[in-house]
Amino acid sequence: MSNVPPVALTIAGSDCSGGAGIQADLKVFTALGVFGMSAITCVVAETPKKVVSMHPTPLKVFREQLSCCLDGMPIGAIKTGMLYSDSVIRAVKDKLEGGSYELVVDPVMVATSGKKLLQPNAIRALKELLPLAKLVTPNVDEAVILSGQPVDSIATLETAARKIFDYFGCTVLAKGGHLRTKNATDIFFDGTTAHKLESEYIKGVATHGTGCTYSACITAHLARGKGLQGSIERAKRNITEAIRNAFHYPPWTVLNQLPG
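Above: the chain's sequence. Below: its structure in token form.
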């Protein structure tokens, strides 16, 4: 049926402020013509400025959400965001292992405010999930943790991306926005070639939810059959426009969640 949209699933936390997490992902999926489903790992009380509290979803409830989504619809692509705990990550791995899913892992570890979003004992489990991924999308801080090396330039970001690929066997989109270079430069390493994705660095925008929005755009384009590199290139344009067109509700700055 020509009017049936592709389907994508987000496995992430709920952000009550609407700028990140499940809420951001579902907005992106809708904007890009994809039917979105969700399995909620954690309910977070937060604003773009701070995380107030986090309340994990009971594991049984999370497993039931995940099973209902995976068993009920023909899913074109899946993304993970805030997984929070060792038990949730292992539940995801157990459910996805052996499948042929287009999986994008956004390794959410720390909020922009500095609040830890992944329990310390869950990092090992997250690393064990990565071999199932088609793509992992670390920011600078996450690239440091996953590669085990400092990142302070585009050159060291590329080295980190190569190491992450070597360690886990999944392609890597290492995001360099936090380096605050002249351009917002990301490195996509496919196991053979390092591709630079550059856009204007947009100053004066205190962003919230950029990582969620970026990875959700990639996931939506994958679900639409655009291929990995094509999906990343389209998503880079989407996130740049979302930041450029961010709007301000004092004291919040919110990404434009209609990337087009």
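The CA atoms of residues 222 and 231 lie 6 Å apart.
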